[in-house]
């Protein structure tokens, strides 16, 4: 989240392009990464990202910070826009879950292909949670579609999504604490060494 | 507590997070988040989780995407571009310089205008004074010219008045013209006056002394009132403002028409 994000949002509402650029710079990589995963097509992803941020520009006055964080709002726009684009192309149901070779070898995509795989991020989660989260979060499936695809009851999909999200939150908290602990250990070591 | 558990296990919160809820479900969820702190905490955790996932999977978009987007915004809403360029909160360095130069130019123009106007006003004032002076000079010249014409006129009679009869050192000339009914005094010598005194001239007609005006010592001609068939002119010293009757004891000069 940007420092003084609420001020920036107000300026964007007042049609300030510089502030809009600040929002774009902050959130475009997250949106682009999401859309790449959803569509697995670079050119289409670029079109969708452009559409998402145009929607942000045109509808920022409808955003309510009391209801959600800006990224949550952007994520919902991204998800719906991507779904609509894929539906218009008639591709949604036929999307491949695996990444294409073109996508894998594109140097403009940050990191390596494996790093973008949710299983690489949350490998401590059971596969059943990874699958449902991958479909719902990264592939923009509805809960019902995920239920149909995974052939599990709708209630089970909901429970798994909830569990996966809770686990992810704990995982990221743990990682951030581990990072702090690592820094503390390094600092103590340096003090010991040079002291 | 059962209610909270029921809500959390319903999957509605996840649905709401993804933006998949109906409008009615969204409103209901917003109320739950507002009422139950546990649900608010869970919702915030979910928001944090999807944000973290997105950060982990973030990928830098191509640079042209941003420029295309900004062009699109400008073409869709040209007003925004102009507003941006003139936004006082975030002006660029060039804009600041242009703004400063504009203000400087405006101030200079105002100063030149004000200064010029000030000078023009002063010139106008001087011109008005000069014009008034000229007009007055013209009037004076016309008056003097007329006086001279009258003095030179054949009908004008120059009457010498003096103070010999009253043992006063007084001499003056009265120019008397019956045609124009015009009379002037040319003062030569007169006794000094006190501060509260003035000279008064009287015309004697049919045994009555009729005032023809008061005056002070001056180098200019003194205009007095003409009177037909006057027999003599007499000058007395009177209190400032003149008297209704001459103070005979103060007679300083006299001239007879006969």
Q: What's this entry about, in short?
A:
In chain A, 72% of the residues lie in helices and 0% in strands. Chain A has nine helices and no strands.
Beta-strand residue fraction of chain A? under 5%
Poorly predicted sequence stretches spanning 5 or more consecutive residues of chain A: 96-117
Kindly report the name of the CATH homologous superfamily of the largest domain in chain A: RNA polymerase sigma factor, region 2, helix turn helix motif
Strand content of chain B: 15-25%
Tell me the number of structural domains of chain B: 3
Structural class of chain B: alpha+beta
Tell me the distance between the termini of chain B.
141 Å
| Number of DSSP E strands of chain A | 0
Biggest sheet of chain B, strands in spatial order? Answer: 1-2-3-6
- Shape summary of chain A: globular
Instruction: State the end-to-end distance of chain A.
Output: 38 Å
CATH class of the largest domain in chain A: Mainly Alpha
State the name of the first-level CATH class of the largest domain in chain B.
Answer: Mainly Beta
Please outline the major beta sheet of chain A: none
Largest interface: A-B, 60 and 48 residues
Any idea what the CATH architecture of the largest domain in chain B is?
Sandwich
Q: Radius of gyration of chain A in whole Å, from Cα? A: 19 Å
Label the CATH architecture of the largest domain in chain A: Orthogonal Bundle
Mean pLDDT of chain A: 76
Helical content of chain B (DSSP H or I, runs of 4+):
40-55%
């Amino acid at each position: 989240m940007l420092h003084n994000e609420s001020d920036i949002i107000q300026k964007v509402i007042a049609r300030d392009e510089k502030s809009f650029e600040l929002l774009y710079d902050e959130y475009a990589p997250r949106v682009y990464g999401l859309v790449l995963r959803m569509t697995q097509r670079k050119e289409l992803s670029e079109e969708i990202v452009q559409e998402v941020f145009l929607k942000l520009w045109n509808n920022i006055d409808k955003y309510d910070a009391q209801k959600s964080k800006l990224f949550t709002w952007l994520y919902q726009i991204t998800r719906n826009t991507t779904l609509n684009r894929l539906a218009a192309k008639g591709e949604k149901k036929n999307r491949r879950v695996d990444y294409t070779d073109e996508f894998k070898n594109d140097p403009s995509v940050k990191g390596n292909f494996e790093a973008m795989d949710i299983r690489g991020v949350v490998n401590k989660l059971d596969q059943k949670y990874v699958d449902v989260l991958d479909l719902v979060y990264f592939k923009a499936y509805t809960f019902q579609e995920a239920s149909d695809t995974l052939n599990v009851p709708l209630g089970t999909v909901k429970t798994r999504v909830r569990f996966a999200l809770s686990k992810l939150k704990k995982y990221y908290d743990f990682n951030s604490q581990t990072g702090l602990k690592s820094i503390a250990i390094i600092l103590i070591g340096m003090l010991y060494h040079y002291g | 507590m059962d209610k909270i558990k029921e809500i959390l296990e319903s999957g509605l919160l996840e649905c709401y997070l993804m933006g998949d809820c109906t409008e009615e479900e969204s409103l209901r969820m917003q109320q739950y988040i507002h009422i139950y702190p546990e649900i608010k905490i869970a919702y915030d955790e979910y928001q944090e989780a999807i944000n973290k996932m997105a950060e982990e999977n973030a990928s830098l978009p191509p640079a042209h995407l941003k420029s295309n987007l900004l062009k699109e915004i400008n073409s869709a809403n040209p007003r925004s571009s102009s507003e941006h360029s003139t936004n006082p909160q975030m002006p660029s360095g060039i804009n600041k310089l242009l703004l400063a130069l504009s203000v400087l130019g405006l101030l200079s123009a105002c100063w030149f205008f004000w200064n010029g106007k000030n000078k023009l006003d002063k010139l106008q004032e001087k011109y008005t004074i000069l014009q008034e002076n000229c007009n007055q000079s013209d009037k004076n010249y016309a008056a003097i010219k007329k006086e001279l014409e009258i003095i030179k006129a054949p009908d004008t009679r120059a009457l010498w008045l003096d103070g010999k009869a009253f043992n006063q050192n007084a001499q003056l000339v009265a120019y008397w013209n019956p045609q124009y009914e015009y009379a002037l005094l040319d003062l030569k010598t007169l006794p000094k006056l006190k501060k509260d005194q003035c000279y008064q001239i009287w015309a004697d007609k049919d045994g009555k002394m009729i005032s023809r005006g008061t005056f002070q010592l001056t180098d200019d001609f003194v205009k007095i009132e003409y009177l037909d068939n006057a027999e003599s002119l007499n000058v007395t010293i009177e209190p400032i403002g003149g008297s209704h009757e001459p103070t005979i004891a103060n007679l300083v000069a006299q001239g007879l028409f006969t």
